[in-house]
Amino acid sequence: MSWQAYVDDHLLCEIDGNHLSAAAILGHDGSVWAQSPTFPQLKPEEITGIMNDFNEPGSLAPTGLYLGGTKYMVIQGEAGAVIRGKKGAGGATIKKTNMSLIVGIYDEPMTGGQCNMIVERLGDYLVDQGF
Question: Could you tell me where this protein is found in the cell (predicted)?
């Protein structure tokens, strides 16, 4: 299966009639493995901030999580494994695997819990597969 199929078939799947507004699978260096057409272009310093937060949980909290120049307030995640961000009625979830970052961005009516489930389920599967 191609990485694009994981984005199209798993990250952009429908949950209770809702979909993520954007999704991507990235390498730890920020290289794009696959993404939805609406996924924002991430800046190198945004990837650095994300990776630093996985290595030093809480380091993004004072400045916020930035994805494509959009700022998200960092909310409860899982230290070293998941970063969650909130912006108004939407937000983002980032799951770190051995080799990749799974990123999901959502807006209402999707909920944070639905986004977390989609992103983390694929992330857990990829970890189990060695990725």
Answer: Cytoplasm, Cytoskeleton
| 9: exposed, middle or buried (Cβ count in 10 Å: 0-12, 13-18, 19+) | exposed
Extract the tokens encoding 87. 């912006």
pLDDT at residue 1, rounded to an integer: 67
Tell me the chain's radius of gyration from C-alpha atoms.
Answer: 13
Would you list the domain boundaries of the chain?
A: 3-129
Residue 105, φ and ψ in degrees, nearest 5: -120, 135
pTM of the model: 0.96
Q: Which two tokens stand for residue 123?
A: 């992330």
* CATH code for residues 3-129: 3.30.450.30
Share of the chain residues as helix, strand and coil, in percent rounded to the nearest 5: 30, 35, 35
pLDDT tens digits for range 43-98: 999 999 999 999 999 999 999 999 999 999 999 899 999 999 999 999 999 999 99
